[in-house]
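Support case: pyridoxal-5'-phosphate complex. Customer-provided input:
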Amino acid sequence: MCCMDTHSILRNLRRQASEMRLLEQARGYAAEYIAGMRSMPAVPDARALRGLESLPRALPEAPTDPSRILEMLHRYGSPATVPYNGGRYFGFVNGGALPAALAARWLADVWDQNAAMHVMSPVASALEAACEEWLVSLLGLPPGTAAGFVGGTSIATLCGLAAGRDELLRRAGWDCGSRGLPGAPEIRVVIGEQAHASVYKALGLLGLGRDRVERVPVDGQGRIIPSRLPRMDGRTLLILQAGNVNTGAFDPFASLLPAAREAGAWIHVDGAFGLWAAASPLHQHLMEGAELADSWSADAHKTLNAPYDNGLVFCRSREALAAAMRAAGAYFVFSTERDGMMYAPDMSRRARAVDLWAALLSLGRSGVAALVEELCSLAGLFGRRLAAEGFSIQNDVVFNQVLVTCATPDLTKATLALLQGSGECWCGATTWNNVPAIRISVCSFATTEEDIERSVRAFVTAREKALRG
Ligand SMILES: *Cc1c(COP(=O)(O)O)cnc(C)c1O
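Agent response - structure generated as follows:
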């Protein structure tokens, strides 16, 4: 220890903890960031990236002054962020952060609550219980459905499939939680050819295998073709999709679920961004029949625009989810209230439900519907405007995703590269039906019609430049 002894280090920390100075400083930076957000480039430019090199390389021996830490974060970190709330970011499926949810999260960070058990945080428990009830109703899920609050859809899918695997095996007389998979009856896994990468990851983690799945052919939009669904039985996990990451298409649930359910299969729906369609009278037809599933996964940090780290697993059978997530320890104190760790793979967790609760309350039922409808309507506008400028739209724009190509694959790639470099807006690349395409996801409440117009102009300019070589 070069300059301070242990005692003075701790004394300093305790003093800082009782002062508002650092939080005020952070608030000032946040205000500057918010004021500049809309004029930032859609992704950090070369100068902003070089700034990151000014951050300390090695962990210093001595404590760093907290005020200096915040200053570094703002000076070098803020410009190197990707402003999802700036209105012109259409990459992946990244939502923005609703104002009430963001502010609630600040407060929750000061609370620093652990949502594992009621005894650790009665407020986290109460807010989780409220969110569970609201979401089950909002999304048209069966009454009594349990919700687990997890990091994202990848984990949510892992949880839903773990519950399904264990329940199918339990019905076959095998306690998977105790005995594991070796020697267990075979479980079949049936998924669409367009299942998301996270589904394969979950299957790998669960010992069900990424490659031993039965893949069902899909149509030109990526939807499972019902007549190609193999025979279902009581040893089958059927994994469907609400919202294809490229086209936004939904599997035809009403044609798939009744028979699968009748046969005793466990049905999971990956609805990372699409499950929210159920909250909109205009779009809920896309989800028709999905309520017959056994488990569902969704991200509140996508379509709902809650801040990051807000994944949701829903399970029709509360017991099945709790059984798969069970943990026992002499020092645990389970209560008659909600103990969040019963429905999630982790024990210690931040109180995610605080920001989710604020997001839902700040929108209300009609606000959630309005948000979903606005994202979809702006995606439709984006597609029509690009088509009017001579671009080809490769998908039926049924939700918030648009797939765009130019006259030739080379022109598509060159146009996208110039678009990404323009800082005007940012879209990702994909391949659809073996052809390179530009992928647009309208997913932030911050995006306006003007943002779409400006982005369309950026597309046109990028293509002109690409044509000139
Ligand atoms: C985003 C997404 C996922 C993964 O969700 P994470 O929150 O990133 O873990 C899974 N499936 C679909 C369809 C998605 O869009």
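The mean pLDDT is 97.

Case will auto-close in a few days if no follow-up is received.
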